[in-house]
Amino acid sequence: MTELAVQDNMLKNEYNIRLARPEDIPGVMLVNLKSLPENYWYGFYSAILREWPDLFFVVEHRGEIVGYAMSRVEYTSDPVLAGEYDELENGPLSPLRKLKDYVVRSYKTVHLISIAVLEPHRGKGLGSKLLENTILAAKRHNADSVFLEVRVSNTPAIRLYEKFGFKKVRIIREYYRDGEDAYVMVLKLDSKNNNIII
């Protein structure tokens, strides 16, 4: 069993952050439907849980799932997703650099696909604890980075990610179904340091 990040006393007494189980998927889907416009089908959650059970966390409150963070390991030759290059600062990668990285490099990343907490339970540090556990799990996978997509208008989420050291490194135009752009944010991991300082 994977050891989870330490929770403070208030959270320990009211909330339980733990690894997800198959029977949690309906509750996770409900949190997703109530919290986010981007929704997934049951089989997607099930596949992520089956393949990466140590990267799927839930927050439980009085027997009810009130939050979750779902991630998977991905391999890429894209240095932006590995935290090696910042397109917002340096411009798009040249075709030659893309080709070179495709042929020469492979990065192991953890993609934070979705994270959400039900509205009545926000502001209690649950999102931070979910993110902290995701980062610690990514380090146990010896990942080079953790990356995610976030709406450019989602200032509270962006601030949370920045608090953990994530950087905006790319914009994906019209990423969301409603046409809104997304920032790609990346946290480059230091495999020698498994502590998180907030």
Structural commentary:
The structure is a single chain. The protein has a single domain (11-146, 168-188), classed as 3-Layer(aba) Sandwich (Aminopeptidase). The protein is 33% helix and 27% strand. The chain contains 7 helices and 7 strands. It has a 7-stranded mixed beta sheet with strand order 1-2-3-4-5-7-6, with helices on both faces. A hairpin with a 2-residue loop joins strand 2 and strand 3 (64-76). The protein starts with 8 loop residues before the first helix and ends in a 10-residue tail after the last strand.
Strand order of the largest sheet: 1-2-3-4-5-7-6
Fraction of residues in helix: 25-40%
Oligomer: single chain
Q: How much β-strand is present in the residues? A: 25-35%
Number of strands: 7
Give the N-terminus to C-terminus distance in angstroms.
25 Å
Name given to the CATH architecture: 3-Layer(aba) Sandwich
Which geometry do the CA atoms define? Answer: globular
Mean pLDDT value: 90
- How many domains comprise the coordinates? 1
Segments where pLDDT lies below 50 for 5+ residues? none
CATH topology: Aminopeptidase
**What is the ordering of alpha helices and beta strands?**
HEHHEEHHEHEHEE
